[in-house]
Amino acid sequence: MSRYFLPALVILLAASSTAQSPNILFILVDDLGYMDIGANNPDTFYETPNIDQLAADGMRFTDGYAANPVCSPTRYSIMTGKWPSRVDATNFFAGKRE
Predict the structure, then answer these.
(1) pTM to 2 decimal places
(2) Contact status, residue 71 vs residue 30, Cβ threshold 8 Å
(3) Within this chain, do residues 74 and 92 fall inside the same structural domain, yes or no?
(4) Which contacts qualify for 75-80: CB closer than 8 Å, 24 or more apart?
(5) Assigned domain for 77 exists
(6) What three-state secondary structure class fits 45?
(7) Are residues 37 and 54 in the same domain?
(8) Is 24 among the domain residues?
(9) Which domain holds residue 86?
(10) Do 39 and 60 meet the contact criterion of CB atoms below 8 Å apart?
(11) How many CB atoms lie within 10 A of CB 55?
């Protein structure tokens, strides 16, 4: 019985020390400028207390890059996981006209 004790103890300790995965919150907002939230501009017109609290308590992503000047390619990229320029989706996608 004593020869099984040490291996069992090692297995139990290894199983109990699992790494905790990080919590990631991705917020995508259309037509919101960098200086429109209180965390980046205290003098903003908009009141964003919850986003300001998230920014104060967590990690802030301050250096973003947009490959296209309109929102349609970004939405396409997020929904499909593909680069907009590789599938020729770099322009504004107009809706259907009736």
Answers:
(1) 0.52
(2) yes
(3) yes
(4) 78/28
(5) yes
(6) coil
(7) yes
(8) no
(9) 68-97
(10) yes
(11) 17
* Distance of alpha carbon 36 from alpha carbon 15, whole angstroms: 46
Q: Which of 58, 73, 56 is nearest to 24 (CA)?
A: 58
Say if residue 56 is in the same domain as residue 73: no
CB atoms within 10 A of CB 17: 7
Predicted confidence (pLDDT) per residue in 50-95, tens digit:
989 988 998 887 777 776 777 788 788 888 888 888 878 777 766 6
**Alpha carbon 19 to chain centroid, angstroms:** 21
| Domain annotation covers residue 83 | yes
Question: Does residue 48 form part of some domain?
Answer: yes
**Cα distance between residue 62 and residue 39, in whole Å:** 11
Overall number of domains in the chain: 2
> Side chain identity at 12, as an amino acid letter?
L
- Mark whether 56 and 72 lie in a shared domain: no
Q: What is the pLDDT of residues 6-31, one digit of tens each?
A: 777 677 777 666 677 778 877 777 77
